[in-house]
Amino acid sequence: MLEFFKKYRLFFGVFIVLSAIILSLFYSALKPKKTLPIYNPADVNPELVDSTVQYKSKYHTIADFSFINQNGETITQKDYEGKIYVADFFFTTCGSICPKMTTNLSDIQKAFANNPKVKLLSFTVFPETDSVPVLKAYAKKHHVNDAKWNLVTGDKKEIYTMARKSYLAVKLGKPSELYDMVHTENFVLVDTKKRVRGFYDGTNKEDIKRLIEDITFLSNE
């Protein structure tokens, strides 16, 4: 038997190598390729979506917008054209979930510091108190990179509209108060075509890890 293996050792060696290559190719072919869903209003929790768009099941994109950032500059859709970005809703005096969310956004900022395709966009839900100077102080405190991360304020009705009709991420507040909003822990991932590609718990480290992986995936598409 030993002599047999010695005689055909080259054959067996080649057979083993070819088998390994073939198995590897089969595994690659059969392994599901990573994909990210494209979210429309009809796909998400109705509590987070304005009733006028809840029926929409396809072709949803982020609407045009114009707000003022921490430096008093006007920020529009043009500033995010061709970018992958994470959007969220917060307010500077929030003492519950916002500190964790801001810390985690800072981690995302660091993770993509050298990737110009990736940006961040934070909307205040209390524009009546979160003025430009207040946002600037908050930005400095949390080491916001102005070139990558905008904290924006503006008309409350317009912010409400963006939150509920475009980003599908904010609950209603008191029915008695017009345009009252309860911000959530949601981080919203938007792709270069202005489509919503994911929702993540901004207070959860595992979700932040998943978000970073998904941003990387979109960056490499």
TrEMBL record:
Molecular function GO labels: metal ion binding
| The entry's keywords | Copper, Disulfide bond, Membrane, Metal-binding, Transmembrane, Transmembrane helix
Q: Which cysteines are joined by disulfide bonds?
A: 94-98
List residues traversing the bilayer. Answer: 12-30
Domain Thioredoxin span(s) in chain numbering: 30-217
| Superkingdom to which the source organism belongs | Bacteria
SUPFAM superfamilies with a match to the protein in the record: Thioredoxin-like (SSF52833)
State where Cu cation binds: 94, 98, 183
InterPro entries hit by this protein: SCO1/SenC, Thioredoxin-like_sf, Thioredoxin_domain
Instruction: Give the family from UniProt.
Output: Belongs to the SCO1/2 family.
Per its record, how is this protein called by name?
Answer: SCO family protein
Species name for this entry? Answer: Flavobacterium yafengii
